[in-house]
Amino acid sequence: MKKAFVLIALFVLPVVIYLFFASGVYNFGKLPVLTQNISSINKIDPTIGFNDKITILGFLGNTIENKKGNAFNLNQKIYKRFYKFKDFQFVMIVPEGAEEKITALKKELGHLVDIQKWHFVFSNEDQINDVFSSLETNLSLDDDLGTPYVFIIDKDGNLRGRDDDEDDGTKFGFNTTSVADLNNKMEDDVKIILAEYRLALKKNNADRNK
Asked: What is the pLDDT along the chain (210 residues), one digit of tens a residue?
């Protein structure tokens, strides 16, 4: 009996534990789609788009100096951890006229990490409102056309988030003012969507090799 127990502990339990976590990834490894087909940014900047990219979308507004802390939080807590993934990017929409402020911000952010996947799109008020409205969230832009919230956009241009968040119910975006929100929720959700696409890629490759 003792020998049998040892054998079970060594060989059977690891398999059971693996199956448990594997089923967990399968069942809980997708972020809900909250809004489909948000307004494309290609019409604003043809060189940048949502297709085939996992995008963190933000709206910095005119008062860049008031959003520096938010940008640094996002840079350290999210961007720095995930920017090496091939299809990952940040897109920040900024009102026209803030170009010099953005140049200064990029210089400061670049002291901490390679910021080649931070993209800044300059746009007019109507275009900014159009993209933000297409997210169909319960949030709103500030008077300066900015918000501390950022959003996860998938490779098909859909807004991803949580539909059963313990605090917000439906969680459309993540508050970059809150380090806790970035650490405890956004980091997990970015991991989930990256894993989702990795698993889909592995499945497609496996199907081709059959």
From this structure: 555 555 455 555 454 444 344 444 334 468 999 999 999 999 899 999 999 999 999 999 999 999 999 999 999 999 999 999 989 999 999 999 999 999 999 999 999 899 999 999 999 999 999 999 999 999 999 999 999 999 999 999 999 999 999 999 999 999 999 999 999 999 999 999 999 988 866 655 555 555
DSSP 3-state assignment of 172?
A: coil
CA distance 195 to 47: 26
Domain ranges of the chain: 1-30, 33-208
CA-to-CA dists, residue 121 to 38, 41, 128, 190, angstroms:
16, 8, 10, 22
According to CATH, the superfamily of the domain at 33-208 is Glutaredoxin (3.40.30.10)
